[in-house]
From TrEMBL:
<dbReference type="InterPro" id="IPR005161">
    <property type="entry name" value="Ku_N"/>
</dbReference>
<dbReference type="GO" id="GO:0042162">
    <property type="term" value="F:telomeric DNA binding"/>
</dbReference>
<feature type="domain" description="Ku70/Ku80 N-terminal alpha/beta">
    <location>
        <begin position="36"/>
        <end position="113"/>
    </location>
</feature>
<feature type="compositionally biased region" description="Acidic residues">
    <location>
        <begin position="12"/>
        <end position="26"/>
    </location>
</feature>
<dbReference type="GO" id="GO:0043564">
    <property type="term" value="C:Ku70:Ku80 complex"/>
</dbReference>
<feature type="region of interest" description="Disordered">
    <location>
        <begin position="1"/>
        <end position="30"/>
    </location>
</feature>
<dbReference type="GO" id="GO:0000723">
    <property type="term" value="P:telomere maintenance"/>
</dbReference>
<dbReference type="Pfam" id="PF03731">
    <property type="entry name" value="Ku_N"/>
</dbReference>
<dbReference type="InterPro" id="IPR036465">
    <property type="entry name" value="vWFA_dom_sf"/>
</dbReference>
<dbReference type="GO" id="GO:0006303">
    <property type="term" value="P:double-strand break repair via nonhomologous end joining"/>
</dbReference>
<dbReference type="GO" id="GO:0003690">
    <property type="term" value="F:double-stranded DNA binding"/>
</dbReference>
<protein>
    <recommendedName>
        <fullName>Ku70/Ku80 N-terminal alpha/beta domain-containing protein</fullName>
    </recommendedName>
</protein>
Length: 114
């Protein structure tokens, strides 16, 4: 049975220390990429109906969560990519092939423009 190899960094060793082939040793973790996260938000009529307990709609709660993640990513990581897409919309933007899809923010590094 072949050994499982992982290439994610443990952070204990210097990333320049690799074997002769340039590959990570089995069990040695390496990770040098960036995270990408696309938020897909339902924008249908049901999302705008508030519950009896709260004045906030599910759509409002979704946007609050997304705003929190965007703020956190702006502060903590300048390498990660975020995107925001609404589906179930009347209008379409950013997708010529699909109706009722509205791309508010393409997959890009988060900034103050949103």
């Amino acid at each position: 049975m072949p050994e499982w190899e992982s290439y994610y960094a443990k952070g204990e060793e210097d990333e320049d220390e690799e074997n002769e082939d340039g590959d990570a040793e089995p069990g040695e973790f390496r990770y040098g990429g960036r995270d990408s996260l696309i938020f897909l938000v339902d924008a249908s009529k049901q999302m705008f109906k508030s519950t009896a307990d709260d004045d906030l709609t599910p759509f409002d709660i979704s946007l609050q969560c997304i705003r929190s993640v965007y703020t956190s990513k702006i502060i903590s990581s300048d390498h990660d990519l975020l995107g925001l897409v609404f589906f179930g919309t009347r209008e379409s933007k950013g997708s010529e092939t699909f109706k009722h899809i509205y791309v508010l923010h393409d997959l890009d590094t988060p900034g103050m423009s949103l």
